[in-house]
Amino acid sequence: MKYKETAKPMISPDYFDFRWSWYTPVLNxxxxxxxxxxxxxxxxxxxxxxxxxxxxIPFAVQADVENALKISLRRLQDYAVRYMVRGEKVSAHTLPxxxxxxxAMVAYLRKQNPHLSRDLLHxxxxxxxxxxxxxxxxxxxxxxxxxxxxxxxxxxVPAVNVLLLRLIRTAIAALPxxxxxxxxxxxxxxxxxxxxxxxxxxxxxxxxxxxxxxxISNYEAMMLPVTPMVFLRHQPASTLLADDSRxxxxxxxxxxxxxQMRYLSDKVGARNxxxxxxxxxxxxxxxxLLRRTWARLSLWKLAMKSGHGxxxxxxxxxxxxxxxxxxxxxxxxxxxxxxxxxxDEPVAVWLLTQLQGGRAAKNGDEPWLRDKITLMAFRVFxxxxxxxxxxxKAESSWMDCKADLVSPGKQRTGLVGISEVRAQAxxxxxxxxxxxxxxxxxxxxxxxxxxxxxxxKALHSGRTLSLRHGCMRVEWSDYLARVCTLxxxxxxxxxxxxxxxxxxxxxxxxxxxxxxECSGSGCMLRGxxxxxxxxxxxxxxxxxxxxxxxxxxADAGGGTDSLPKVTMCMDMTGEWAFSEIKxxxxxxxxxxxxxxxxxxxxGIARDAGVAHMIRARDEMLNQRPIGSVNVESINxxxxxxxxxxxxxxxxxxxxxxxxxxxxxxxxxxxxxxxxTASQVEGVLDGFRLPLCGLELLAIQRSAExxxxxxxxxxxxxxxxxxxxxxxxxLLDGCTDAARLIVEKGMARWx
Length: 750
Fold this sequence. Notes:
The chain is of the alpha+beta class. Helices cover 49% and strands 13% of the residues. The strands form 6 sheets. A 9-stranded mixed sheet has the order 6-7-5-8-14-21-18-17-15, with helices on both faces. Strands 1, 2, 3 and 4 form a 4-stranded mixed sheet that branches. A two-stranded antiparallel sheet has the order 9-10. The longest helix is centred in the first third of the chain and has 28 residues, at 180-207. It is elongated and about 110 Å long.
């Protein structure tokens, strides 16, 4: 069918059911689908503050990726003009050969859009610089985002997807102004259809067998931002989307009835919006527009089901559609046969009745009052607009720094402000070797995210680490006091030769671990939660072995009561602030602070009086604590109970626990266990359980990480820094209680 300039681009009606199936579960959870478009800039390793105080992700696109997008989309526009405007015919043997993937793409697009030229789809989908080039960019970026997400434990997947949609949207909007209606329609149907198709295939491949909750979350984060409005050359401002008549018609709706449908929807409420159709049909104009919308969408659906593309000439031309509905058109034999062969479709039944004329036509049914296809289109349009506005806001978080880096004659002095970048006219420059070299240099130095066509390349070099850092306070003054009594005048030598070299070996062995403070009382470490955990375990074991060596292996049997205590506490609260100053007298100083600092400082609670109270109570009851982090309730003279807190082990706050389990969700087996009193009996006799009951979490790291499982126990809810915080202990595997828990099978990880 030759494409007419009067025709309007439209979305396949199958889209509405498909899209609503994504929106329904989100809305049922009392969430807003638009929230799934957010880019969590602060959680990504590379980000910077703009002059408007906003936070942005600096990025650049290599020339080959940029060219692949531009050439692919330009060729699609050229083929659309050739085959759908000029009506050119070519021999099949002159078109590029198709393989299995190309056949699947063409079949999918033909089913959704029976009116599109088969030669157009064949030519563009089979050409290496056509659909293959576009899909290669998409698949490389998705895979790079997926790998980077796992490496950084940061939300790269949705952020990269939003950037990819921005790149495609920008490239389509930059196409020449040639046959605008054709370009809009073909980009909408072909590029939009293939993007959704390819994204579904990618997600199936990567999420097969993944835990249901994680699978759904990833699906929603990548599918919800993909609205048809991305793939249009016509790009109205965000404030105009909801009322733009061209966009409303793309959804098969009439611009005149949408305001009335909004009014009725607000009036009857979301639960009763099924009554909108009958209310809308009460006046003559509303009834006519409702019937036209229903017929347009129903005829497209009939064309898709039957493969009879002839119906699309009425779908895409409002004037001809009115003539058909008014009985002014005589259908050909093929159309009549198609109606009779699909007599189960309401639109076929209604048209056949109208063609009979007479009383049957006059008293005919009004299926548009019961068929919800119009209402579904309205629902999806309204939600799509909200999502599109949110996604455009999210995509602005990606700041294009290419123009500044590759402009000839400019010295690179760091990334420019957002206002300067926006002044640059799109993706210019960077086509020479020097420009590409500058991009690579900036990428290697950790200044930006570089979009490359090589799937083996990471999004960033890894030199810049996420500010999603935890904080760990280590208190070792009691340990050093014991060492001092054992070594006497050799204490300084012990510190120089053994203690400090061993400690710095632990810190220096990890690129994502930072030492913010170190003194005779302890140290403050900052970094990823996994590095903090590993450092805590290594430090505890190292100090144990040093002490055993000093006392001549007296505690080699595994007892821990006589070992000096080293206290640690971890937290993930708040963002980090940095300050560096050079003073003429005091020298250079740096302060690194977040709310986590005050939390971990409060978590290092080692009051000797409190320890004595707990020990006296345990001796009186003939019990022992399971771990070394104690949150207890002590009765005082007035009969009231007072909470006391003492830490002589490794404590993690609830925020640190959440970060730990999140970081290990794809890298470890996590088993949670809450044994009852009867299950504990005979296993932990003689041990005092926490007041909150026994809650255990066993984490078995992947095989390449090796090592024993992590055993964590919930100890209570003490007040740290004025805030009640859930606290957990990373149990020492050498203690009697930990051994019993493992040996008796109370915590499993197989």
